[in-house]
Write a structure and sequence with these properties.
homodimer; about 260 residues; alpha/beta; Metallo-beta-lactamase, Chain A
Amino acid sequence: MLAITFLGTGTSMGVPVIRCSCEVCQSKDPRDQRLRSSIYVQTADCSWVVDTGAEFRIQALRANIQRVDAVLYTHSHADHVMGFDDLRRFGSVNSGRIPIYASKDTLQNLHRIFSYAFNSETRFAGYVHPEPHLVDGAFSLGNTEIHPIPVEHGRAHVFGFLFRQNGRSLVAYLSDCKTVYPEGLECLEGVETLILGTPCRRPHPTHMSFAEGVALAERLSPRRTFFTHLSHDFGHAATEKELPGNISLAYDGLRLDL
Amino acid sequence: MLAITFLGTGTSMGVPVIRCSCEVCQSKDPRDQRLRSSIYVQTADCSWVVDTGAEFRIQALRANIQRVDAVLYTHSHADHVMGFDDLRRFGSVNSGRIPIYASKDTLQNLHRIFSYAFNSETRFAGYVHPEPHLVDGAFSLGNTEIHPIPVEHGRAHVFGFLFRQNGRSLVAYLSDCKTVYPEGLECLEGVETLILGTPCRRPHPTHMSFAEGVALAERLSPRRTFFTHLSHDFGHAATEKELPGNISLAYDGLRLDL
């Protein structure tokens, strides 16, 4: 069993965008209100979040999250990490610590940004107490195998994550990605559900465009694909009509039981 | 003319607190929903925010802020700065820059945390483009004199701010403060409206308690006092009944026309 709840499906600026009066930013459809991209993953024996953007506190309250056993980071851009401090409410009951899984580069940036939390001399009782785990290959949380998938996203070192249980590649989450390297494509073969960040309609130097996302979904042909990390280029209702039947736009609060 | 809108009135954990089932955290009273402390100040010729906590994007949308000419920082603790990136939507129409007023210590920490934004090599078009202003004494924004008031708050270098117009000390904002130094008390004499952070009922090592806030208000005897930076110790309706008539609890969205 693996369930994914989309805590946020927006880009770095979210939707609505501050001071924007476009149709999508003025939309009353709750599916057009997008906090910064993040997912909450629940399995039979373990629960984790992927990324903690600035609005993580609001996302955790909204989804009524009671348990976070670990945090996985795709990368350390501002829209993916600035809510880190709010993990303080999820420390382990025994140690107060929360395991953080990330690349060397991301761990270094988290350490730089939240130095008070990584330093036992400046970390007071009640502060978030991270337990860093360097991700340099597949690892497990409970009965789920997690395969990091390095992807191209400008100058940042970024991971997508593939979640496998009992020999099945249940779902892959690639939020910030221009292209997937050949080894990654190989790793993604046979994935049942694919989640791709496609923030814009026009080609973008560091992100997959909408059309590139459709092409990748066609190439990998998972059963279902969800697009996330969406800008105000996309009004939910209108965009859904453009998409092939097995591709959908994710929205904040959407839960997938896989 | 000077108007203050409370963008947030909560402590570092906000209210409700994640995973808390206390009466205040379960309250349906909107005045018991507190985002991280911040104010928006509007004058005839200039508008600014004090602090940008993680929820700044949501606060700016909620208050329909269309203009931010400058940002003042009290200090660089996580609950006061982590929404900095969302200032990108308020850069000056001409230069894209946004003036940032803070102490040396706070500017250094902002530079460390948001290094990509301070570095012209890593700051892409559309990113927040800060223009740092070191605060080492009084300065002006439009027709408002701004007096920084160094206060004691643990190991951090923290400012309160006094806003003066036409020889009147209209309002002072001291969000994070254990004690005000004698020079600060002198500077605050005659202040008409006082805003004090009083996060808790019990004595706290780095913050003013509720009782200490009441004592300071009595000593300075402004016309009105508002308490902010409030934890879940305080249910709005019940706490208001305990307070002297000239002291009130602030709440998110409250606007003062001074």
